[in-house]
Amino acid sequence: MEKRYHWTGLALAVGSSVSWGVITLYWKLLVAIPALEILAHRIFWAFIFVLVLMVWRKRSHELALIWRDRTTRHWVALGAFFISINWFTYIWGVTHEMLVEVSLGYYINPLLTVLWGVIFINERLGRAQIAAIVLAASGVLVMALEYGRIPGLALTLAITFSFYGFVKKKTSLDAIASLTMETLLVVPITLLYIGYLQGMGQGHLVGVNGYVTLLLIFSGVVTAVPLLLFAAGARRVSLTTLGLVQYISPTMQLFMGVLMFHEPFSVKHLLSFVLIWIAILFYTLTSIRQLKQVQLNQHGGG
Q1: CA distance 92 to 235
Q2: pLDDT, position 203
Q3: How would DSSP label each residue in 262-297?
Q4: Handedness of CA 13, 229, 278, 163 (dihedral sign)
Q5: Are 135 and 278 spatial neighbours (Cβ–Cβ below 8 Å)?
Q6: Which of 85-89, 204-208, 253-257 has the lowest mean pLDDT?
Q7: What's the whole-number average pLDDT of the chain?
Protein backbone atom coordinates (compact mmCIF):
# COMPACT_ATOMS: atom_id res chain seq x y z
CA MET A 1 0.00 0.00 0.00
CA GLU A 2 2.82 2.37 0.93
CA LYS A 3 4.65 1.58 -2.32
CA ARG A 4 1.50 2.30 -4.36
CA TYR A 5 1.07 5.56 -2.40
CA HIS A 6 4.62 6.59 -3.37
CA TRP A 7 4.19 5.74 -7.05
CA THR A 8 0.89 7.61 -7.16
CA GLY A 9 2.62 10.63 -5.67
CA LEU A 10 5.46 10.37 -8.16
CA ALA A 11 3.00 10.17 -11.07
CA LEU A 12 1.15 13.25 -9.78
CA ALA A 13 4.38 15.21 -9.29
CA VAL A 14 5.72 14.28 -12.74
CA GLY A 15 2.32 15.10 -14.24
CA SER A 16 2.39 18.55 -12.69
CA SER A 17 5.89 19.34 -13.96
CA VAL A 18 5.14 18.02 -17.47
CA SER A 19 1.93 20.09 -17.44
CA TRP A 20 3.89 23.23 -16.56
CA GLY A 21 6.20 22.50 -19.48
CA VAL A 22 3.37 21.88 -21.96
CA ILE A 23 1.48 25.00 -20.81
CA THR A 24 4.31 27.02 -22.32
CA LEU A 25 2.79 26.18 -25.70
CA TYR A 26 -0.59 27.43 -24.46
CA TRP A 27 0.76 30.96 -23.93
CA LYS A 28 2.33 30.81 -27.39
CA LEU A 29 -1.21 30.62 -28.77
CA LEU A 30 -1.88 34.05 -27.22
CA VAL A 31 1.28 35.69 -28.56
CA ALA A 32 -0.71 38.49 -30.27
CA ILE A 33 -2.18 39.64 -26.93
CA PRO A 34 -0.19 41.90 -24.55
CA ALA A 35 1.33 40.00 -21.62
CA LEU A 36 -0.36 42.25 -19.05
CA GLU A 37 -3.80 41.47 -20.46
CA ILE A 38 -3.05 37.74 -20.48
CA LEU A 39 -1.94 38.04 -16.85
CA ALA A 40 -5.16 39.82 -15.87
CA HIS A 41 -7.27 37.07 -17.42
CA ARG A 42 -5.07 34.33 -15.96
CA ILE A 43 -5.57 35.70 -12.44
CA PHE A 44 -9.30 36.32 -12.83
CA TRP A 45 -10.21 32.96 -14.38
CA ALA A 46 -7.91 31.06 -12.02
CA PHE A 47 -9.78 32.71 -9.15
CA ILE A 48 -13.15 31.66 -10.61
CA PHE A 49 -11.96 28.08 -11.09
CA VAL A 50 -10.51 27.58 -7.60
CA LEU A 51 -13.45 29.40 -5.99
CA VAL A 52 -15.82 26.92 -7.66
CA LEU A 53 -13.65 24.10 -6.27
CA MET A 54 -13.82 25.61 -2.78
CA VAL A 55 -17.62 25.88 -2.98
CA TRP A 56 -17.96 22.36 -4.43
CA ARG A 57 -15.88 20.96 -1.56
CA LYS A 58 -17.93 23.01 0.91
CA ARG A 59 -14.84 24.92 2.06
CA SER A 60 -15.80 28.46 1.09
CA HIS A 61 -16.23 29.36 4.79
CA GLU A 62 -12.46 28.90 5.21
CA LEU A 63 -11.83 32.07 3.19
CA ALA A 64 -13.43 34.24 5.86
CA LEU A 65 -11.36 32.52 8.56
CA ILE A 66 -8.16 33.07 6.60
CA TRP A 67 -9.04 36.72 6.02
CA ARG A 68 -9.58 37.32 9.74
CA ASP A 69 -6.09 36.05 10.56
CA ARG A 70 -4.04 39.20 10.05
CA THR A 71 -0.65 37.48 9.91
CA THR A 72 -1.80 34.89 7.36
CA ARG A 73 -3.50 37.61 5.30
CA HIS A 74 -0.26 39.59 5.12
CA TRP A 75 1.79 36.57 4.06
CA VAL A 76 -0.81 35.68 1.42
CA ALA A 77 -0.73 39.26 0.11
CA LEU A 78 3.05 39.08 -0.17
CA GLY A 79 2.75 35.75 -1.99
CA ALA A 80 0.21 37.27 -4.38
CA PHE A 81 2.66 40.09 -5.12
CA PHE A 82 5.53 37.74 -5.95
CA ILE A 83 3.50 35.26 -8.02
CA SER A 84 1.87 38.08 -10.03
CA ILE A 85 5.28 39.45 -11.01
CA ASN A 86 6.49 35.92 -11.75
CA TRP A 87 3.51 35.10 -13.97
CA PHE A 88 3.82 38.36 -15.89
CA THR A 89 7.56 37.88 -16.46
CA TYR A 90 7.02 34.27 -17.53
CA ILE A 91 4.23 35.14 -19.97
CA TRP A 92 6.23 38.06 -21.37
CA GLY A 93 9.28 35.84 -21.87
CA VAL A 94 7.30 33.08 -23.60
CA THR A 95 5.48 35.47 -25.93
CA HIS A 96 8.70 37.35 -26.78
CA GLU A 97 10.74 34.28 -27.83
CA MET A 98 12.90 34.09 -24.71
CA LEU A 99 12.22 30.50 -23.65
CA VAL A 100 15.92 29.72 -23.17
CA GLU A 101 16.21 32.51 -20.61
CA VAL A 102 12.89 31.48 -19.04
CA SER A 103 14.22 27.96 -18.50
CA LEU A 104 17.44 29.39 -17.03
CA GLY A 105 15.37 31.22 -14.41
CA TYR A 106 13.57 28.09 -13.27
CA TYR A 107 16.83 26.13 -13.13
CA ILE A 108 18.31 28.77 -10.82
CA ASN A 109 15.22 28.99 -8.60
CA PRO A 110 15.91 26.01 -6.23
CA LEU A 111 19.48 27.18 -5.59
CA LEU A 112 18.22 30.65 -4.71
CA THR A 113 15.77 29.04 -2.30
CA VAL A 114 18.75 27.51 -0.51
CA LEU A 115 20.44 30.91 -0.40
CA TRP A 116 17.36 32.55 1.17
CA GLY A 117 17.47 29.85 3.84
CA VAL A 118 21.01 30.93 4.73
CA ILE A 119 20.19 34.65 4.70
CA PHE A 120 16.81 34.64 6.44
CA ILE A 121 16.75 31.47 8.57
CA ASN A 122 20.49 31.16 9.33
CA GLU A 123 20.69 27.71 7.78
CA ARG A 124 24.19 26.32 7.31
CA LEU A 125 25.53 25.12 3.98
CA GLY A 126 27.90 22.25 3.36
CA ARG A 127 30.83 22.56 0.96
CA ALA A 128 28.93 20.89 -1.88
CA GLN A 129 26.01 23.29 -1.46
CA ILE A 130 28.34 26.30 -1.44
CA ALA A 131 30.02 24.93 -4.58
CA ALA A 132 26.57 24.53 -6.18
CA ILE A 133 25.67 28.18 -5.57
CA VAL A 134 29.08 29.37 -6.85
CA LEU A 135 28.72 27.23 -10.00
CA ALA A 136 25.20 28.55 -10.61
CA ALA A 137 26.44 32.13 -10.20
CA SER A 138 29.23 31.35 -12.68
CA GLY A 139 26.63 30.06 -15.14
CA VAL A 140 24.66 33.30 -14.84
CA LEU A 141 27.88 35.30 -15.36
CA VAL A 142 28.67 33.35 -18.55
CA MET A 143 25.15 34.02 -19.80
CA ALA A 144 25.58 37.72 -18.98
CA LEU A 145 28.77 37.82 -21.05
CA GLU A 146 26.95 36.14 -23.95
CA TYR A 147 24.03 38.57 -23.85
CA GLY A 148 26.18 41.59 -23.04
CA ARG A 149 23.81 42.20 -20.12
CA ILE A 150 22.61 40.60 -16.91
CA PRO A 151 19.90 37.99 -17.76
CA GLY A 152 17.29 40.07 -15.97
CA LEU A 153 14.29 38.02 -17.06
CA ALA A 154 15.82 34.77 -15.75
CA LEU A 155 16.83 36.38 -12.46
CA THR A 156 13.41 37.99 -12.02
CA LEU A 157 11.73 34.60 -12.50
CA ALA A 158 14.13 32.89 -10.10
CA ILE A 159 13.96 35.59 -7.41
CA THR A 160 10.17 36.01 -7.45
CA PHE A 161 9.39 32.29 -7.53
CA SER A 162 11.92 31.40 -4.82
CA PHE A 163 10.56 34.20 -2.62
CA TYR A 164 7.04 32.97 -3.37
CA GLY A 165 8.00 29.50 -2.16
CA PHE A 166 9.66 31.00 0.92
CA VAL A 167 6.54 33.04 1.74
CA LYS A 168 4.22 30.05 1.31
CA LYS A 169 6.15 28.19 4.01
CA LYS A 170 5.00 30.87 6.44
CA THR A 171 1.38 29.70 6.15
CA SER A 172 -0.24 26.30 6.54
CA LEU A 173 -2.70 26.78 3.68
CA ASP A 174 -3.16 24.05 1.09
CA ALA A 175 -2.91 24.69 -2.66
CA ILE A 176 -6.59 25.46 -3.29
CA ALA A 177 -7.09 27.79 -0.33
CA SER A 178 -3.77 29.53 -0.95
CA LEU A 179 -4.39 30.15 -4.66
CA THR A 180 -7.97 31.28 -3.98
CA MET A 181 -6.84 33.90 -1.46
CA GLU A 182 -3.87 35.05 -3.55
CA THR A 183 -5.99 35.60 -6.65
CA LEU A 184 -8.83 37.10 -4.60
CA LEU A 185 -6.54 39.89 -3.40
CA VAL A 186 -5.52 40.80 -6.97
CA VAL A 187 -8.86 40.19 -8.74
CA PRO A 188 -10.28 43.73 -8.16
CA ILE A 189 -7.29 45.22 -9.99
CA THR A 190 -7.51 42.72 -12.85
CA LEU A 191 -11.26 43.33 -13.25
CA LEU A 192 -10.71 47.08 -13.46
CA TYR A 193 -7.97 46.56 -16.06
CA ILE A 194 -10.02 44.10 -18.15
CA GLY A 195 -13.03 46.43 -17.97
CA TYR A 196 -10.90 49.40 -19.02
CA LEU A 197 -9.49 47.53 -22.02
CA GLN A 198 -12.92 46.34 -23.13
CA GLY A 199 -14.38 49.84 -22.68
CA MET A 200 -11.59 51.33 -24.81
CA GLY A 201 -12.13 48.70 -27.51
CA GLN A 202 -8.64 47.25 -26.90
CA GLY A 203 -9.65 44.11 -24.99
CA HIS A 204 -9.63 40.60 -26.43
CA LEU A 205 -12.26 38.88 -24.28
CA VAL A 206 -15.22 39.70 -26.54
CA GLY A 207 -15.54 41.19 -29.99
CA VAL A 208 -12.49 39.42 -31.43
CA ASN A 209 -13.24 35.72 -31.96
CA GLY A 210 -14.54 32.82 -29.91
CA TYR A 211 -11.23 30.94 -30.10
CA VAL A 212 -9.32 33.69 -28.28
CA THR A 213 -12.15 34.09 -25.76
CA LEU A 214 -12.00 30.39 -24.88
CA LEU A 215 -8.21 30.48 -24.56
CA LEU A 216 -8.42 33.40 -22.12
CA ILE A 217 -11.17 31.76 -20.06
CA PHE A 218 -9.39 28.39 -19.85
CA SER A 219 -6.15 30.11 -18.80
CA GLY A 220 -7.53 29.77 -15.27
CA VAL A 221 -7.84 26.01 -15.59
CA VAL A 222 -4.34 25.53 -17.03
CA THR A 223 -2.99 27.67 -14.19
CA ALA A 224 -4.69 25.80 -11.36
CA VAL A 225 -4.58 22.15 -12.45
CA PRO A 226 -0.76 21.67 -12.43
CA LEU A 227 -0.58 23.38 -9.04
CA LEU A 228 -3.22 21.03 -7.60
CA LEU A 229 -1.42 18.00 -9.07
CA PHE A 230 1.83 19.22 -7.55
CA ALA A 231 0.24 19.73 -4.12
CA ALA A 232 -1.25 16.22 -4.20
CA GLY A 233 2.06 14.70 -5.28
CA ALA A 234 4.07 16.66 -2.70
CA ARG A 235 2.18 14.95 0.14
CA ARG A 236 3.23 11.49 -1.09
CA VAL A 237 6.92 11.76 -2.07
CA SER A 238 10.13 12.99 -0.44
CA LEU A 239 11.38 16.56 -0.88
CA THR A 240 14.43 15.26 -2.78
CA THR A 241 12.23 13.42 -5.29
CA LEU A 242 10.01 16.48 -5.56
CA GLY A 243 13.04 18.70 -6.21
CA LEU A 244 14.31 16.45 -9.00
CA VAL A 245 10.90 16.27 -10.66
CA GLN A 246 10.69 20.07 -10.82
CA TYR A 247 13.56 20.19 -13.32
CA ILE A 248 11.40 18.48 -15.95
CA SER A 249 9.54 21.71 -16.74
CA PRO A 250 12.55 24.01 -17.45
CA THR A 251 14.19 21.20 -19.43
CA MET A 252 11.10 21.01 -21.64
CA GLN A 253 11.12 24.81 -22.01
CA LEU A 254 14.78 24.77 -22.99
CA PHE A 255 14.26 22.13 -25.70
CA MET A 256 11.13 23.88 -26.96
CA GLY A 257 13.00 27.17 -27.24
CA VAL A 258 15.92 25.66 -29.15
CA LEU A 259 14.30 22.89 -31.22
CA MET A 260 10.75 24.15 -31.83
CA PHE A 261 11.16 27.92 -31.90
CA HIS A 262 14.82 28.08 -33.03
CA GLU A 263 16.00 30.50 -30.38
CA PRO A 264 19.77 31.19 -30.34
CA PHE A 265 21.81 28.67 -28.35
CA SER A 266 25.56 29.22 -28.63
CA VAL A 267 28.55 27.48 -27.05
CA LYS A 268 28.43 30.05 -24.22
CA HIS A 269 24.77 29.23 -23.65
CA LEU A 270 25.75 25.56 -23.39
CA LEU A 271 28.60 26.35 -20.98
CA SER A 272 26.24 28.38 -18.82
CA PHE A 273 23.69 25.58 -18.61
CA VAL A 274 26.39 22.92 -18.00
CA LEU A 275 27.64 24.91 -14.99
CA ILE A 276 24.09 25.15 -13.65
CA TRP A 277 23.39 21.45 -14.32
CA ILE A 278 26.54 20.53 -12.37
CA ALA A 279 25.40 22.85 -9.57
CA ILE A 280 22.03 21.08 -9.50
CA LEU A 281 23.79 17.69 -9.41
CA PHE A 282 25.96 18.79 -6.46
CA TYR A 283 22.95 20.12 -4.61
CA THR A 284 20.81 17.04 -5.30
CA LEU A 285 23.46 14.49 -4.30
CA THR A 286 24.10 16.40 -1.08
CA SER A 287 20.37 16.50 -0.31
CA ILE A 288 20.04 12.75 -0.90
CA ARG A 289 23.04 12.03 1.32
CA GLN A 290 21.67 14.25 4.10
CA LEU A 291 18.23 12.64 3.86
CA LYS A 292 19.75 9.14 4.12
CA GLN A 293 21.79 10.25 7.14
CA VAL A 294 18.67 11.58 8.86
CA GLN A 295 16.84 8.32 8.14
CA LEU A 296 19.77 6.28 9.52
CA ASN A 297 19.86 8.40 12.68
CA GLN A 298 16.11 7.99 13.14
CA HIS A 299 16.36 4.23 12.61
CA GLY A 300 19.28 3.98 15.01
CA GLY A 301 17.44 6.01 17.61
CA GLY A 302 14.23 3.97 17.27
Answers
A1: 32
A2: 83
A3: -----HHHHHHHHHHHHHHHHHHHHHHHHHHHHHHH
A4: negative
A5: yes
A6: 204-208
A7: 85
Q: How far is CA 237 from CA 150, 153, 240, 245, in A?
A: 36, 31, 8, 10
Report the candidate in 298, 296, 279 with the shortest Cα–Cα distance to residue 129: 279
Which H/E stretch holds residue 93?
helix 70-95
Domain ranges of the chain: 2-301
DSSP string, 182-200: HHHHHHHHHHHHHHHHHHT
Give the Cα separation of 245 and 248 in Å (integer). Answer: 6
pTM of the model: 0.87
Whether 24 shows a pLDDT value over 70: the answer reads yes
How far is the CA of 17 from the CAs of 43, 48, 98, 107, 146, in angstroms?
20, 23, 20, 13, 29
Statement: residue 298 has pLDDT above 60:
no
